[in-house]
## 1
Amino acid sequence: MLQISKLTKQFGSQQVLKGISARFPEKQTTVIVGPSGSGKTTLLRSLDLLVRPDSGELMFDDLKLDFSQPISSKQRNKLRNKTSMVFQNWNLFPNLTILQNITSAPIHVHKVAVDQAEHQAHKLLQEVGLDEYATAYPHELSGGQQQRISICRALAVQPQYILLDEPTSALDPERENQILRMLERLSNEGNSLIMVTHNMQFAKNVADKILFLEDGELQFDGDKEAFFSAKTDRIQQFLQGVTLN
Amino acid sequence: MWEIWSSSLPSLFGAMLKFTIPLSLLSFAIGLVIAVVVALIKFLPVQGNRFIKLLWQGIRLLVSFYVWAFRSTPLLVQLFIIFFGLPSIGIKLAPFTAAVIGFSLNTGAYGSETIRSALLAVNQDQWDAAYTLGFSTPQTLWRIIMPQALRIVLPPLSNEFIGLVKDTSLASTITIAEMFQVSQQIAAQNFQPLTMYIEVAFLYAILCTILSTLQHYLERRSSKFVQEVSH
Ligand SMILES: Nc1ncnc2c1ncn2[C@@H]1O[C@H](COP(=O)(O)OP(=O)(O)OP(=O)(O)O)[C@@H](O)[C@H]1O
Ligand SMILES: [Mg+2]
């Protein structure tokens, strides 16, 4: 299980994470919500060391990182091999074909045989109905298609946790629904997901657990049911605000 | 006039094959290696302890000085210092060697800035995407960043190469019998400077036209992954 303790991060003079402790249970979907600028992306990126926290700890099975100490590249790789991020803007590699986007990490990082990696990639592509685009380049695909490919790319390295930062916010409602169904399926199949989203309906559908972040502090950490029926003023206010949008 | 051209063409062509082209190719190849190394030194952050960081800062300062020095002084002066100046401190170089060193260092200085800005022009989110999949920094550079930078860097680098081909005429001043010097010699014999210099200009133009054609071909090849823009 992935776990963090007293994580802090400062950008310049701004304290963006103020000592966050949380657990991300395996085979469950943890959704991080909160107002804009509250530190959700920073927290998520910390879990893959795309942001280096200033202090605190991260525990993952037998791996233990203490951020007040230097992190070795071996530790970093160990963590990154267990987690994989899906970005808001997809960030597919424009110089590689769709197939290469999905197979590059299995082949070059995990040393999987080429035909095996390609077989696996085609299987993922078939699942999302995009196998016919295997030899296309990312710019030839629509936003929703690129987002599905980016999820395939993350899945291809068989991460224990998939991290998603607002996976649907750059999409129109129809494409958003496609991605939501895909994530629901992943979650039902027993994948461990950690996701930042502004979409409360979606959070309601897929979340097992909600983290509510505000101003770099965790205001709520618990079951989805408890969150959506929470009586605290702040959560009520937040939920009303988002529903209005 | 045709007679003068056809009788002088073999010598000019010989000089082109013997000096102008080898000088350009060799200097550009070495210059490109220097440029890539310098660009990476300036571009890559360093990880490690205090000592390594300090060392890296020192190396960066040194390469910055090199780039500054060669971009802020005329190429002709650089050639003169290397060929006529260095012997007085005991470094005697053959003309061709001196020319290759001068042109390479000059190309390296300009090219490094071109390459560095191309590396910076690649969307930096690409690093995140590669890192999250487990790519190392060299792997990310080689497989993801450099191929994208190549497309950006081709037009300016081609310009620099074409400029270099023309600049090899400066090697005539350090006693190299390259194409331009041969045309000077012939003009001094037959008293037809206009005819001779137009001929040599034409030969440079042919060389450079071949290069631009090559450039367009390479640009098309390296852009196959880019969206076509209709203007
Ligand atoms: N690399 C950075 N350098 C400086 N400041 C940063 C950096 N990344 C984030 N910040 C700041 O940290 C704060 C939290 O940013 P973060 O992106 O984590 O918020 P967020 O909750 O994801 O917001 P949003 O919902 O708008 O995506 C913001 O004030 C932001 O300006
Ligand atoms: Mg964010």
## 2
Amino acid sequence: MADYHVPVVGDDIKTPDLKTGTMAHLHPYPATAKHMDPMGFPGERVENWQQKGIEKLGELLKKYRSLQVYLDICVKCGACTDKCHYYLGTQDPNNMPVMRAELMRSVYRRYFTPAGKLVPGLVNAADFDEETLGKWFTYFHQCSQCRRCSVFCPFGIDTAEITMAAREIMNAIGVGHKYSVEIIGKVHQIGNNLGIPKPALKGTLEFLEEEILDSTGYDVRIPLDQEGADVLLVAPSADFFSEPHIQSLMGYAKVFHQAGISFTISSYASEAANFGMFIGSYDQQKKIAKRVVEQARDLKVKRLVVGECGHAWRVAYAFWNTLNGPFDFLDPRYPAPQHICEFTHDLLNRGALTLDKEANDSFRVTFHDSCNVARATRMGPKAGGQFEIPRDLIRASCNHYVDMDEDTIREKTFCCGGGGGLLTDELMDLRIRGVQPRVTALKRVMESDKVNFMALICAICKAQFTKVLPMYGIPMEMVGGVHQLVSNAIQLGVKKGVV
Amino acid sequence: MLTFLAYIVLTIFVLGFLSRIFVYARSPAPLKIATTPAPTTVSGVAWRLFTEVVFFNSLFKSDKLAWAGGLAFHGAMAVVLIRHLRYFCDPLPAFVAPLQIFGIVAGIVMAGALAFLLLRRLVFERVKYISSKADYLFLVLLLAIAGSGLLMDFALRPSIVDIKSHMLSMWRSVTGLPPIGSAGDVMFLLHLLLVGLLLVVFPFSKLMHAGGIFFSPTRNQVDNPREKKHVTPWAKS
Ligand code: HEM
């Protein structure tokens, strides 16, 4: 393993001093023609890239009010400068949200405002040149689009919107990031991010059914492509193959089984994740999400339920209806789409499930709010349900629950460090440093309350934490899904069906 | 001449400001991106914006010093602006008259808060790092406006009545200047020119945050994407 710099973890999250250029060395792997061509992006950097890039920026300004307003109105008050986990973990000033946005704002000023044209030095306007593009590629791939800064900004300026626009502009001139673009290609070709073909998927699901039968004695089914099921379950594909994700998948299956509600997974739409969002592409988001809607129609289901995945839930909750709605062909009694936590919570409230908290007595649990769920979605009818519903489920499944420091949970939660299309090995240095604020808060409750399990509802968080927590001396088994706890606690066969 | 200039400045400001607002209003917001937890009703959103504009709610959560300085400056500026109505309205609205003393206190608070905000930019490492020359200049300009105003209140009284009657009678003259009989009159001219400068740059600068905040999608959207299909024209197909 390369010698990564693992930051020191103190008792408190402290804002470090500035240190210019600490992350300038990080070079995301560029996408090649093989990845870019199928997307309709230029395979290599186009000849007149400066002009094309500026034109693209002009086009996006007309398409996105967020971009137009946020490039105009920042007063540089500095309130965001200590809010980004990447700044806190790297000290690199370009990872302060305002400076990240300035990378684009300076170009915007130069070409789109009188002040930037007349007095560029006065207002920090910059040409869109080789150096600027280099910084864009580096630092717009050091933003996980977690939107923590937008919570604290007096104007709600959302750096994620700016990062998305930057990536869209770069893709338009043939400067793509391999990781995201390659993955989107796999969704279109095979149906999911991991590139799992149908036979392999079928095999895994059968294996998991046996696993549940062996451990519980109950014949819990995880059907694939079953027409006429009540529910289409769309889970992140990591739930089919990765640890600890699989544990949650078994949890979902047990909930369906116990409630007596039939469900199916689709091999064609075997992916809840939607990396179209990470690259800022409206068209890609729409195309990827369309697979789900088509399957819901083809399989004639009545409800759509989304598994544990943060950005997937954002796309599903906030965008699906806009992109491919309306969902008027589904059962109007249920929200469309519905989060698996909403689904389970509803069943619990209706008395359809029996949970034995003691089954999780070996765990002292805390909950990591995943950024996209926390700051971009809702669960249930009330604002803030996205915080309470998962916590309710955890409390119903175990006896020992404690929250982490208030400034690191709910809408103030810290990113795991791997979101927004950064969950790739070449960015490991960033991922390790970026998790430092979360680790600091986690270590605190590990010491004060003997916490030994961090529950969460995001496939990317799970993958990131299991990889980087060990570098801080925290075992990877510490991390798992909310439905992993539900899975442990649920009493099969006690009482069946919805009351 | 002064009157003539004033009309040009006002025209640039009003048209410039409105055209920016028009750009914001016209540019579409294709997706629902409210920062949650967000209100689920329109009246909830109105309240959210109100708390942001009047109390700087989010800033309070993130930076107490910037919040205190910012709120003091903007609040005081608002009072000062209302008090300025006396120079423009005849007859004076009844509620402005008793504000005279508050107006002067507000002037002092405004200058103090601006000095504090300037100091903040110079002293705190991160805020210093992110500041451009323009960021300092805005504060210096506002400070100069407030300072020249206060000087007129306390030391160098200009002959306001004379100047006003001159300006009113001379609005057709391109060359005529108001009488300059004292240091106070010079101070007044300076005050007026600085305000003119502020108004001219306003629509082309970060000062547009004053109108832009109302168009920030993360703050002004209702959190109801599942309940109501949100569409914008370019994204319809
Ligand atoms: C709807 C009206 C307005 C709102 C909600 C608003 C809000 C804010 C907020 C939240 C800040 C950041 C905090 C700070 O640094 O003080 C700020 C900064 C600032 N505002 Fe406003 N503002 C408004 C109108 C104006 C107007 C009319 C002016 C004009 C002259 C102005 C001038 C400034 C300046 C110069 C700053 C930067 C302060 C600094 O450099 O530290 N604002 N405003």
